[in-house]
Amino acid sequence: xxxxxxxxxxxxxxxxxxxxxxxxxxDPWIFVSGQAAITEQGAIVGEGDFRAQAxxxxxxxxxxxxxxxxxxxxxxxxxxxxxxxxxxxxxxxLRRQFFKPPYPADSIIEVKALxxxxxxxxxxxxxxxxxxxxxxxxxx
Length: 140
Known about the structure:
By secondary structure, this protein is an alpha+beta fold. The chain has helices at 50-67, 88-98; strands at 6-8, 23-26, 29-35, 75-82, 105-110, 121-128. It has a single domain (6-13, 20-131), classed as CATH 3.30.1330.40.
């Protein structure tokens, strides 16, 4: 028997006008759409400030995961899109700030532009609900 897809959304869903879901759950998996530095009201956070935008995107990722009964601890894979690879060292710091070992698998891609011209960072994720409670290293 297959598990039906379930839409996950925060109380205010800024993605609603764009015909896409913030995330989809196919239990126990959660597939989160790209999160950027956009408030629930659609305003951009930290225009021109890469670090502020990236932190806001990670925080938005955490909010969407929480709406699905998960957390950043359950993330197993991320894909990061950024408009300038010179910020790569900051991404490493952010991964240490928002994730715990073992860190999620990751792809980082430099792109010409994101959905809105002033966005500099976007992160999408795949999480396995409950995986964070059992995280261990390959040495375990």
